[in-house]
Design goal:
The protein is mostly helical and 119 residues long. The chain has a domain of 69 residues. 58% of the residues lie in helices and 0% in strands. It is built from 6 helices and no strands. Helix 2 packs antiparallel against helix 3.
Length: 119
């Protein structure tokens, strides 16, 4: 089975042997007759797909797209893109932060007290 998956012993262009290998693999993978039919159809489609093997096969609309304008060069091969440093604090020292929170808490207490006096 491994030789079927890897393709050992098959020569390129041996269509009949390839079809037999595909059929055997499809039989092994299929859990129902419907799946076998589906896998067989997928193999047929795969064999009909045209591959672009040289520049003459590639459609013109792919050839004339200027990729350099659309792709941002990140650096040398294998180099990670540098990320912008992110600052998660608000620039306050611990003491300044505590004072700010206490002030906000005091302000809330004053507002609540005013509401109680009015109400």
């Amino acid at each position: 089975m491994e030789s079927l998956l890897v393709g050992e012993g098959e020569e390129t262009g041996a269509g009949e042997e390839e079809d037999e290998g595909d059929t055997e693999i499809n039989e092994l993978m299929a859990t129902s007759p419907g799946e076998f039919d589906l896998y067989t159809q997928m193999d047929t489609t795969r064999k009909c797909v045209q591959l672009y093997t040289n520049d003459a096969d590639v459609p013109d609309f792919f050839k004339f797209v200027e990729l350099e304008d659309k792709i941002e060069v990140l650096g040398e091969r294998g180099e990670r893109a540098k990320r912008k440093a992110i600052q998660y604090d608000d620039g306050l020292s611990e003491e300044e932060f505590v004072n700010k929170i206490e002030k906000e808490f005091d302000d809330e207490e004053e507002r609540d007290a005013k509401k109680r006096r009015k109400g």
